[in-house]
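Letters spell out the chain; backbone shape is given numerically. Take this protein:
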Amino acid sequence: MPTPSHDKDSTLGTEREPRGIRLQRFLASTGLGSRRRCEEYIVAGRISVDGEVVRDLGTRVDPRRQHVAVDGESVRREPTRYFLLNKPRGVLCTNSDPAGRPRAIDLVPGERLRLFTVGRLDESSEGLILVTNDGELAHRLAHPRFQVRRTYAVQVAGRPTAETIASLKEGMFFHEGRFRLQWIRRVGTKGNSAFLEVGLNHGQNREIRRLFARVGHKVMRLKRIEFGPLSLGRLPEGRFRPLTAIELKSLRELSTSRRTRRPKSPAESPATATAATGPAPRRPSRGSSPPDRAPKHDRRGRQPRRRKTL
C-alpha cells in the first residue's frame, strides 16, 4: 500500500519520520518526465503502486520494496543522461505529437531511455535545448525561483529605437502577467532589420515574440545561444553532444542555489531604524551650548548680553 505523507503515531500523538520519497519525485527520476508532468499522470489515475491506482500527490513510496507502474507498465530508475542539442526550426519540444511531426528527442538516437527536453523552444525557434532523463534536475532548472539565464540571438523587422528598447526592458503586461527583457544589446543591421542579443531569466510562452510584436517589430528569427552555464558554441544544426563534467557540475550547483535576497530585519535596515527612532541627534560644535541645556537668564528673566570681543 502507498505510504501517506503524514503518519501520526496513534499512541504518542507525535509525527513519525516520513518514509520513502514522493511518488512524483521517484517518477521524475525514472525519466518519465518533469516533476510537474508526473504530477499530471498521478492526478489522471495513470500511476499504480502495488497494483492500486493512486491519485494523491502526497503519496510516498519505497522503490526498493514497492512496485510502481505507469499505464500498467513497470518503471524503474535509469542511468541519467544529459545532452546539449542544437534544435532546428520545424522541430517540436514535446514527447507526443498526434500529427507525427519531428521531435527534438528524435535527434538523439541510440538512447533507449525516456528522454525529454528541459524547457521549450517553439516550432519556429532554434538553438540550444537541454535533453535529459533527469526529471528532478529538469524541474529545478525550469522553476522561476532559480532564475536560469537564457540568451537569444534575435533578428527583428525594422530598427528599434532607444525608447522602444527602454520599454521592452521596463516590461509590459499580458494575460499571464508582466513580460520584460532583462537586457538588450545591439549587434548589427541588415537592410531594414536589426540583429539583437536579448536575455531572460525565466521564459514564458513565446515571450520574446509577443513583446516585440507589441512594439511593432516582428521577430524574423530567434535562436537560443546560452542556457545558464551552457553555450551553443559551434555545434552544427541538428547535432547533439553530451555535457561535460564541468557543465553538469555547474548546472547542479545552479539548481541548488536560490537567487533570492533575504530581506533585512528592522535591526539591520538603516531606513527602518531611522523611521522608528527618528534621526540621530547632532553633536554640538565646540564652544556651543548643549541642545538640551536652557539658556541662562538674570533675575528679571532677561537673557544677559554677550560682550563683544575686540
Q: What stands out?
A: Helices lie at 23-29, 35-43, 135-142, 162-170, 207-214, 245-255, 270-277. Confidence is low (pLDDT under 50) at residues 6-17, 259-281, 287-295. The radius of gyration is 31 Å.
